From TrEMBL:
Family recorded in the similarity comment: Belongs to the IspG family.
Protein's UniProt name: 4-hydroxy-3-methylbut-2-en-1-yl diphosphate synthase (flavodoxin)
Keywords: 4Fe-4S, Iron, Iron-sulfur, Isoprene biosynthesis, Metal-binding, Oxidoreductase
Residues annotated as domain IspG C-terminal: 308-409
Gene: ispG
Catalytic activity field: (2E)-4-hydroxy-3-methylbut-2-enyl diphosphate + oxidized [flavodoxin] + H2O + 2 H(+) = 2-C-methyl-D-erythritol 2,4-cyclic diphosphate + reduced [flavodoxin]
GO biological process, one term: terpenoid biosynthetic process
E.C. designation(s): 1.17.7.3
Record keyword Transcription present: no
SUPFAM superfamilies assigned: Nitrite and sulphite reductase 4Fe-4S domain-like
InterPro entries membership: Dihydropteroate_synth-like_sf, IspG_bac, IspG_bac-typ, IspG_C, IspG_TIM, NO2/SO3_Rdtase_4Fe4S_sf
Residue intervals of the IspG TIM-barrel domain: 29-291
Organism encoding this protein: Rhodoferax saidenbachensis
Pathway connected to this protein: Isoprenoid biosynthesis; isopentenyl diphosphate biosynthesis via DXP pathway; isopentenyl diphosphate from 1-deoxy-D-xylulose 5-phosphate: step 5/6
Length: 425
């Protein structure tokens, strides 16, 4: 046994010094970097030319917790629709900033449709898709000129699926001349980072302030992403946007995103994140926002929704009651959060425990703000409820689930309602 006078160090995320960018719409400002909380982004998959459909999906993403929403601007029709998307959101009271995602023809769209350029709060520019040869510099320059003219921040988003092939070929040639050439993958890493940093430097030369520039270098492999961003974070102080470029579907996409982003965020790298999930047929687009918020909350970086602790179940918990109640309470808390954020300040810090038997049930329930230990196999048909660490009541009968939900609602009103009253307007 090791004897030490020093306590075990807490596993706290590191901090990285980065510039702070402001993404603005009307009176709404979302700060990115510079000590601001890690922000959640998402992206619509609607045809932006359908202004109503796009506005509805933006609203859904914003209510789910997306603080910035990116929309595709790929055609004149889409560019024309952007101001109407913004107008519909304003009418619905959704003040989330919109990011325009541009490829290939962004220079023309931002120039030909100034109302679109103004309605967007930020532009995403892919340096690998702005043109080739002489056109690349000119067309990239036109997009930066629009950002300067309308005072908009940008994200220079490099992607290994659309990396500047001329740059990559040049770096491969240089690598072949080394005494000991690198493997192909480190050269690709270097090309990604070089593309981002050289593009950012050119934007600054054209008059865009450094704090208005964010960077991303997206790949689809977990270890590749970690390697690239660790080096990118070391070489610059621009705010960084994280995300696997194509995370995948379902469990694979969720696990890969959590594995990569958790490592980087724990290293202090990353100012905004997106979980780029492929939705299953019929699955809501908002699932990627839920997963992004869970990653950030699991690391203790921010709190978005009350946490529900529940056991996995075992031979002692043959009843499905605790599983059903856990899902019911979790769904209920998430559904109410858009309303509760305004009415009950601090409710996102609530901790609820729903346990399935007497082994760990009472202990976990005492650690939570409010918890219930449901009867397991062979246990008395009673469910003790603990509030603020003390046993307050025992629920019995067929209505345990409904009764416990009422207890949770009453606790929230009593604890967090007073905070709302005490908070000045």
């Amino acid at each position: 046994m090791v004897d030490s006078d020093l306590p075990i160090a807490l596993a706290l995320p590191k901090k990285r010094a980065s510039l702070q960018s402001n993404v603005v719409w009307g009176s709404r400002t979302v700060t990115v970097g510079g000590g601001a909380p890690v922000r959640i982004q998402s992206m619509t998959n609607t045809d932006t030319a359908d202004a109503i459909g796009t506005a509805i999906q933006v609203k859904e993403l914003a209510l789910a917790g997306s603080e910035l929403v990116r929309i595709t601007v790929n055609t004149p029709e889409a560019a024309q629709a952007v101001p109407y998307v913004r107008e519909q959101l304003d009418r619905m009271g959704i003040d989330v900033p919109l990011i325009g995602d541009f490829h290939f023809n962004g220079h023309r769209l931002l120039t030909d449709f100034p109302e679109c350029a103004q309605a967007l709060s930020k532009y995403r520019i892919n340096p690998g898709n702005v043109g080739k040869g002489d056109k690349r510099d000119r067309q990239f320059g036109q997009m930066i000129e629009a950002a300067v003219r309308w005072n908009k921040p940008i994200r220079i988003g490099v992607n290994w699926g659309s990396l500047d092939q001329e740059l990559l070929a040049s770096m491969m040639d240089e690598n072949s001349k080394r005494t000991v050439p690198w493997d192909a993958k480190p050269v690709m890493y270097e090309a990604l980072i070089t593309s981002a940093l050289e593009s950012a430097a050119r934007a600054q030369e054209m008059g865009l302030p450094a704090h208005q520039i964010m960077l991303s270098c997206k790949v689809s492999g977990v270890q590749d992403l970690i390697a690239v961003y660790r080096e990118l974070g070391r070489r610059c102080d621009y705010p960084l946007h994280l995300g696997l470029t194509e995370a995948g579907m379902g469990t694979k996409g969720t696990v890969a995103s959590a594995a990569a982003l958790a490592v980087l965020l724990q290293d202090g790298i990353g100012d905004t994140i997106r979980v780029s999930l492929t939705p299953a047929p019929g699955e809501a687009r908002t699932q990627e926002v839920v997963i992004a918020s869970e990653i950030i909350q699991a690391l203790g970086l921010r709190t978005f929704v009350p946490s529900v602790t529940a056991c996995p179940g075992c031979g002692r918990t043959t009843s499905t009651t605790f599983q059903e109640l856990t899902k019911q309470i979790d769904d209920f808390l998430r559904a109410q959060m858009p309303v509760w954020r305004a009415s009950y300040p601090g409710v996102e810090n609530l901790k609820v425990a729903v346990m399935g038997c007497i082994v760990n049930g009472p202990g976990e329930s005492k650690h939570a703000d409010i918890g219930i230990s449901l009867p397991g196999t062979g246990e008395a048909p009673a469910a003790p409820v603990f509030i603020d660490g003390e046993k307050r009541m025992t629920l019995r009968g067929d209505s345990i689930a409904t009764d416990f939900q009422a207890v949770v609602e009453n606790y929230i009103q009593q604890r967090f309602g007073s905070a709302a009253v005490a908070t000045p307007n």
